[in-house]
Amino acid sequence: MASPRTRRLTLDHQTLTRRFASWPTIQITGTAGLPPEIYQFRYHLKGLFVNPAGDILERDTHLLEVNLSLDYPRRAPQCRMLTPVFHPNFDDASVCIGDFWAASEGLDDLVIRIGRMIAYQEYNTRSPLNGLAAKWAAEHPTLLPIDPTLVAPPQPAPPQPAPATTPNPETNPWAEKLTIS
Fold first, then answer.
1. Would 49 be classed as within a structural domain?
2. At what angle do helices 4-20 and 107-118 cross, to 10 degrees?
3. Coil, helix or strand for 39?
4. What is the pTM of this model?
5. Is residue 68 part of a domain?
6. 137-175 pLDDT, tens per residue?
7. What is the CATH number for 28?
């Protein structure tokens, strides 16, 4: 029987594959391990970066690496951008997910949340990893979000319950009232 961690890794992989299968905004571009413990995702969203001259510019493609440690899901995934992002909650080595990670959260929801962060649909300037980006975001709220694109793929509608039917006494022998004295 598989360990709880292996079952969780397998479930995460199935969920990610199903949820992002035909979604152009987020794509799984690589995995390592069986079941995968390392993922690479490509986002097709506008975000910001700083060029070597110090200018803040837009970029519309971003790569994220997610590493699921041996303590996953009790310990948060290690997330780092492979393409630089100018954002209050990103630095060169990591993405700050500590404010919202819980073991009960699905990896797919985390990947979506990071996409929202890239597009500045979500950010936290109170405890930033990048103070300069936090200052910039606080000074330029009218420019945010950078990209209003829907990041999460639409969820399929839940199945509707069958309509209630009134029993017909001729076809339902249990619909007849019995009196026991």
1. yes
2. 50
3. strand
4. 0.84
5. yes
6. 999 999 999 999 999 998 766 666 666 655 555 666 555
7. 3.10.110.10
